[in-house]
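Hi there,

I know you've been waiting on this one. I reran it after we fixed the sequence typo, so this is the corrected version. Both the input and the resulting structure follow.
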Amino acid sequence: MAGGFSFLFLPRRTQSKLHSTLFPLSAMAPLPAPTAASAFLFHAPPRGHHHHHKPKPASSSRPTTTLCSAAPSSTPSLADQLEPLSRMLLTDKPTPAADRAQRPTPEPTWVNPSRPRPTVLSLRRQRRRPAANHPSSAPLQPLLRDLRALPEDADLAPTLHAFFPLPGSPPTSSDALLLLNYLHPSWRKTLSLLSYLRALPADAGFAVDTILFNVALKSLRAARRWDEAERLALDMLDSGVPLDNITYSTLITAARRCRQFAKAVEWFERMYSPASGVLPDEVTYSAVLDVYAQLRMKEEVLALFDRARGSGWKPDHVAFAVLAKMFGEAGDYDGIQFVFKEMREVGIKPNIFVYNALLEALGKTGKPGLARNLFEEMAAEGVEPNARTLTAVAKIYGRARWGRDALQLWDQMRERKIPADSILCNTLLSMCADVGLVAEAEQLFEEMKNPDLTDVPQPDKWSYTAMINIYGSIKDADRALQLFVEMLQSGIEANIMSYTIVIQCLGKANRIRDAVEVLEAGLERGLKPDDRLCGCLLSVVALSTGEETELVLGCLEKFNGNLVKLIRMLGDNQVGTDELKDQLKAVLNAAETEVRRPYCNCLIDICQNHGLPARRPRELFRLAQGYGLYSKLHIRKDDEWLLDLRSLSVGAAKTAFDDWMAALSERVMQGQPLPQSFNVFTGSSTHKFAQGLASAFAAHLEEAAVPFRRSESQVGSFVSSRVELVPWLQTSSSSSRVVAG
């Protein structure tokens, strides 16, 4: 392995995990207590006396203790100096989820590289009994029928005592093994049988050995009963029953199935203790690699893999699939190339599972061309694709906007009679929504609804949601609402995404009352709104007027009162920037990270569309910019400055541009240098469902008479030169056409 490790990381159970940050949430300045909101949209809520701190320079000292307030003095305390900075920090996660237990992560252990490196796994798998040596179950058939008839939680001891009367006819080891294998699907009966066997008197000449315990553990693994499996293994240790390779392997794979990854690592460590006397075989080792990959501990995975390869291990398909999935999750294309290289060196040809893992990994690294080549190689090797393969390829083609290629694969799949599942069909529908293939999506959806087509699954809630999304994208509110009602009438419960898309579609069509009715009906059916639905309602508020605005806010206030309070504060001229900052911070901290920027976009749109105080859009924009939500808008090169507006709404894009012009005007007044050219990028808008940010921005430029023009070389770009822009900035500054921040 290139760049191999000279030492082995062996995991040690973590007792604590460090999650400290420079300024923990507990150290931030307390926020004002919430107050009752007014009944009218833009009337300020009653406010108490709030103390506003003027910004002070942050100290260069790093705090080592919790910050606390101090009495006023001539020299500001450290807490006072750092308080403005703490107010500009958001939590990484929504505040309601801050108390979630963190999954423990094992720490690596360093092994002295100067000592001879021990073998880390057994290259010989534990042998299984040949089928010819299995005893016949014919004598036990009457007992098996009786056990089958018993309830799931029944005590098996009376039935077993009747069949095996003591002391004359105790069960043999073969009888016990047959019974345990027969009861494998029922973990409760398996444990009851094991308890009976362990309770047999010593003079019966029967001892429960490791093999019987292993069979019981496999039953618990199949039922995903980790707590019971671990208790049974600890009981084996307490009873002096030795644990062999199969025991450890079963426990580790059981913990992995139950997503108890830290427990899997703990039992893997036991195998390396001097008392165990066993080493993992290749099956166990592959499972452990997957555990570390699930924990995103890439260095440990590579160290274990390298160490095992040095011991003579030939990785199997499972191990390579684990590596491919891990590198794909991390978007590590070099890692995927490493998997290809190792497979060639080992001489293993990928099977369907490895191909699927590699295709999914290439999709996450944004390599559609390589994914297509790999798919063609797979066909050339004679490996038959399955539904998961085509799902991965369809996702890749959809991201690359190769919709026709994906549908061509679908047609080939139908011709070859390859069965499709719901995931594949829903992926194709979502891809059609992304690339604007309405007719093709309708054809596929009708095939799914046809009961005579047995090779295509029936539509589920995700299928309906994808179709509703398509109609919402083309602003066909009637068809979207009709399909939504059809879904409910067919007995399919709509998910929150369906409600969000329908409400957004109705809002864009200015059918605000219909949107409110859909939301209220969902709340009556037990709908639990999330942050994305709240963002959708914010966009509806931006599009609404008059009484309809109050209808939407009334619904929103039922489950997000802080957000409604912030909207009302925006309309009150008496609310200062500090109060607004505190309320905005509370709203953003309570929201998921990925919706924070859309929230700010919608809030700026509300300010502009509802004629709120002229300073509010710029205040919101700069506060959000201070929180890092608009941190990647500006790109500066030596000869060109670029403003990227693609992630902004129309209102937020206008505000960002005006703020940029104000900053450039300030530089001109101060005589600071400017680049040769300027570029504003609004996106190519090649999607047929694009909402037209470029057109709205062009109208804004024309209204303000800013000397930007459409680029002839790049669609969606507006360019200007220093020679053209500087005179306009000087004129606009003197005539106050650009509002200072």
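Quick highlight: DSSP finds 32 helices and seven strands in the chain.

Best,
R. S.
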